[in-house]
Structures
1.
Amino acid sequence: MALAQEIIKEDKYIAELEKLREISLQIDPNVCLQCNKCVGSCTTAQVYTFRPARIMRYVALGMISHLIAGKEIWLCVQCLRCVDLCKMNVKPAEVIILLRNLATKFHELPTASWKRLIESVMKIGSMSEEVEQFAWKKTPVKRKDIGLAPLKFLPGEKLKMLLQIGEEI
Amino acid sequence: MTATQQYAYELAVKRVFPVFGIELVDIDEFSCCGEPLRNVNVKKWLVFASRILAEASTRDLDIVTTCNGCYLSLNEARRVLQENSQIMYKINQALRKIGLELSSLPRVKHVIQLLYDDIGIERIKGKVKREIKIKAATHYGCHILRPREFAVDNPYNPTKLEELCNAIGIKTEDYPERLDCCMLMLDHMDLKKANLIRAKKLKSIIERKFDCLVTVCPLCQNEYETRQRAIARLMKNPKLRIPVVYYVQLLGIALGFSPEDVGLHLNTSPIGSLLSKITES
Ligand code: SF4
Ligand code: SF4
């Protein structure tokens, strides 16, 4: 692809990222000093070549397309150590969340497990349906067996309206 | 509070707080706080979280979360609304369509704050009927310690959970993995790797001869409980049996409730060894 086209493509993502920043206040990858403090504290960096500082540098340079097409941004566990340690208030974990937002918009969720989770919240407003729980001795238990009121879920109509509102704000 | 998938936790919380004069009201309209949606669409998350805040505010109630994830999600939403009047305006306009309004922002507290900051160690000590003579490993989880503005304790050396344990007779001890992340979010990408990291923590707990792991978050609890068998297989240690319990369950027993009252029989980790120790003491 010609360089000009590459840049236009990136511009689209940069503009989207800017829009999301309205909601996430106070993040600014552009002031990242590459001090690597976030890397030293990062839970994921201990077991992967994942480096929050590197991701912040790419975002500052406007090189976003490969980040949102790849799986790396989904490895962050949101332990928020980077947010606490970064003296420039870059908030790497929050920037990564916004990159995931872009990734979802322009690509697919990275795994079936992620898809299941998000579908469930969108469909029933909760992470999982009422299930029989198994105690440690493997005996099945239901809420009513132990005097708990049944789980209630948000009515479908209300849930739909909520998700719709989310599109509009 | 709201009905949950964590029956054991729910039972224990509902038993324990009335002892200290705190009334808990179930709100049927509560749903997920929206936290998972943050990853795919921050606007949808904000609407979800704001609605929960609005449901509480229209009833003139404050919110106590039993979950670290909800605690941070709702507090983050509060901050966004507080700091950005334009967004607050838009959200309110939208909420009105479903008959709600955010006239004020309810306070959002975590169970550990209610216990330590509001009830206090001394009042808890005063109500103890039975000391729990065990040695427990504590687990805080991430979202009640960071970011700093919402931290319930010192993010680098929290002591509240240990003090709460000590108050009911439980011995605690520092261990290197105490403040580790439960790795929940990596489960969706690479469950085996996440289990390997959790295995490190459980191994350390065995080596240091702790009687159990004590948690304050249903998501963390689930990671060390339900996944324990898979972790045992990974560690090639079929005998791995670490009881994982909520602090509130142990508190309940100290206050005189039976193990069944606080749902101990519903925990999915093997709690047999712990039960016998507790009943001995
Ligand atoms: S994000 Fe912050 S901590 Fe990380 S390298 Fe940049 S300035 Fe340093
Ligand atoms: S929040 Fe993500 S990027 Fe930040 S330290 Fe934790 S794992 Fe690393």
2.
Amino acid sequence: MRAFDYSRADSAERAIASHRDGAQASYLAGGTTLLDLVKLDVMQPSRVVDINRLGLDRIETLDDGRVRIGALVTNTALASDERIKRDYAVLSEALMSGATTQLRNKATTAGNVMQRVRCPYFRDGVSACNKREPGSGCAAIGGFNRSVHAVLGTSEHCIAMHPSDMCVAMAAIGATVNVEGPNGSRDIDFLDFHLLPGDDPAREHALEADELITHVTLDAPIGGSRSGYLKLRDRASYQFALASSAVIVAVEGGTIRDARIALGGVGTKPWRAREAEQSLIGQPAGERSFQRAAELALQGAVPYRQNAYKIPLGKQAVVRNLTTLTA
Amino acid sequence: MDHQDEPTGRGGVETFDARSPSRRRFLKSMGVSGLAAATAPAWTQIAQASQASPEPVEPQQDGAPAEGEQQITLTVNGQQHVLNVVPNAVLLDVLRLRLGLTGTKKGCDHGQCGACTLHVNGVAVNACLSLAVSHDGDEITTVEGLASGDALHPLQQAFWEHDAYQCGYCTSGQLMSAAAVLNNPDIDSSDAALREALSGNICRCGAYKNILAAVQDARGRMEGSS
Ligand SMILES: Cc1cc2nc3c(=O)[nH]c(=O)nc-3n(C[C@H](O)[C@H](O)[C@H](O)COP(=O)(O)OP(=O)(O)OC[C@H]3O[C@@H](n4cnc5c(N)ncnc54)[C@H](O)[C@@H]3O)c2cc1C
Ligand code: SF4
Ligand code: FES
Ligand code: FES
């Protein structure tokens, strides 16, 4: 692994200052993305700023009913929090479906938001990859693109899917990313945080230079709703999603009062399906409405050589999740 | 993938063994139970020798750190060590190369196989994705710290009896994951829950069935004894 210098910050201000000092600085949280990619020499920091002791490891319920999650809350701690299990089952389930016990014990909330794509051409350090080496092309478009490439939100420059499960649940719930930087603090809507690859796949998120995520704040839960995460993958455990759905749905007397749908495994970012949601409201909770919503959720999907199956699979993830939750 | 081996020089940690390297040590590091299961007479002898308590690792007390190094304190299996490490030294490598604690294995080096699983402050994590500097002050438990003296941990005993391995390379990681799982009240006692909780430990020999049986058996023994 390449050499870097290391500093441990004891406050957000110090962490930001230290990050600002270093030419190529990276924050270190759980390290499960960062150290993996530094070992592969895909990420090349000359300084690592350890943020594990900033005290940002609490989950708080705010007066307005929202829930504020510290950036360093681990995936395990978040998934097993009683409030999360009760009011945001979809989030707890999404977290538990991701990675492994050991990795979830290390992985943090902000680190998960910031995790990088699993595209093998990005990771191999040599193939054409616009994300790793802007302007070099995209080996995935004509290459292997069966499992970790998207059908929604792709561009001619990059088709890598966003690999997070947690983020799909957050996209459905609605959330705000709270950041602090050299110029003070600001809030970013969760749905604006991850960027589509477009012409510049190397730019993946809305953080400005040196900005630090301090919290992710979840919108208040929808009263009387049920929620769940359905992850479809090559094997039953420990695998990235081929397609997944995060669904929150409230039904009254057989009629859908409110619905939230987001998709994973199929999009270049955590994919919120607003039109699908709208189509459900006021409709009877049943197969016909669910099918229509699923069609709308995958609207505009573009298949690549090996991943056309993701379009029906994604639809199925929506229908089955809705069916289970309203049964 | 870049399977860089044990790092050397500037980029890693210096190779230094706290205990004299010996064949016995190597065999011991393969796990007490793995050897006991072997049948050839010569092996039986070694196996018996290896059932003695492990040689303690001498506490390390480094002097002033050289430029570019940082001094950290690690408590490993109850023993405190003061070590100078370079910033990019990985916890797994420091334990194996500096302290000679080779029970914790390096499989993939990328968080994918679980061979390097150990406990940091009681929590199971992948040591291959952990920087040593980042663990200054932490309590580490490795597979070498699982037994108490000559008494095998119930999990080790159960792995032995259930033949829960073939080559043994994944075994220490399996044991450390299982030890954490059995202490976790959030994970129910069903086979399905156990399989899910242990899915981060890959066994290339496919000993999963016996591993599951061993862990369930150990659960019974631990509950029986408490
Ligand atoms: C084998 C394997 C399997 C996996 N499987 C899954 C899966 O099935 N589903 C899934 O969702 N994920 C999976 N993951 C990804 C895992 O969830 C992420 O690696 C993890 O969430 C990253 O969190 P971390 O705290 O370890 O981040 P780090 O590695 O510490 O950081 C990741 C990135 O975020 C930056 N960063 C960290 N914290 C902050 C902050 N507060 N502000 C700004 N920037 C920050 C870092 O600089 C770095 O660039 C898997 C990972 C591995 C290795
Ligand atoms: S899909 Fe994106 S990450 Fe993969 S090779 Fe193409 S540009 Fe790189
Ligand atoms: S060596 Fe750490 S997970 Fe494989
Ligand atoms: S016993 Fe050989 S890898 Fe598990």
